[in-house]
Design brief:
8 helices
């Protein structure tokens, strides 16, 4: 990757953890590549499942303004935990003509192999979205068959959207924030939906 200015993104899931080890290793890695680290973005105590993170959002905003040439992370799970979220971020960087490199996984989106990987990840992300949609539809069908009304019920949130977000791996707190409803209200509403029967005897 031919990059003169690189941005480093660091993340740890809990406030008690430190990003110092990531920062040190990435500094050494960039030095070996001859890259100049111009910006460091750091999210502390934030899960990788969270799509909205202060440092990540700022990094993507700066990328759109071409304030650096590439983004470097220690591992891709520092950037995103789901394939669809990772692809969304990488496509935004690609649109801004910003490269991406994972130091420990030999991933470089400016290389032919990296571009092929991005295409492959995009196909997986689309497959994941289709599976989630199928699960949501199956859940809604079970709900209707039990006489529960859908759409925007009296509890005041979009049941289908809540199921979709839960299928993507968002926790109750995150979904409640996205839908702007109390977490207890969300939990009661989703708890009323019957679960799919499990197969036994195998």
């Amino acid at each position: 990757m031919n990059a003169k200015r690189v941005a480093v993104y660091l993340r740890v899931s809990t406030a008690g953890q430190t990003t110092e080890n990531q920062a040190l290793e990435l500094r050494r890695y960039c030095d070996r590549q001859g890259w100049k680290t111009t910006r460091v973005y750091e999210d502390k105590g934030i899960s990788g499942a969270m799509r909205e993170r202060p440092a990540l959002d700022q990094m993507l905003a700066d990328a759109s303004e071409r304030k650096f040439d590439a983004v470097v992370v220690w591992k891709i799970d520092r950037l995103a935990r789901s394939t669809s979220h990772l692809v969304d971020i990488l496509m935004r960087l690609r649109t801004a003509e910003i490269g991406f490199c994972s130091a420990t996984e030999a991933i470089d989106t400016t290389s032919p192999q990296g571009r092929m990987l991005l295409t492959f990840l995009g196909a997986i992300a689309e497959f994941e979205r289709e599976l989630i949609s199928e699960r949501v539809r199956a859940g809604l069908d079970r709900t209707r068959s039990n006489g529960i009304k859908l759409g925007r019920p009296r509890v005041g949130f979009d049941l289908a959207e809540a199921l979709r977000l839960r299928g993507l791996g968002f926790g109750y707190k995150q979904v409640a924030r996205q839908l702007n409803v109390p977490r207890t209200t969300l939990f009661r509403g989703l708890r009323a939906i019957p679960k799919a029967p499990t197969k036994t005897g195998r």
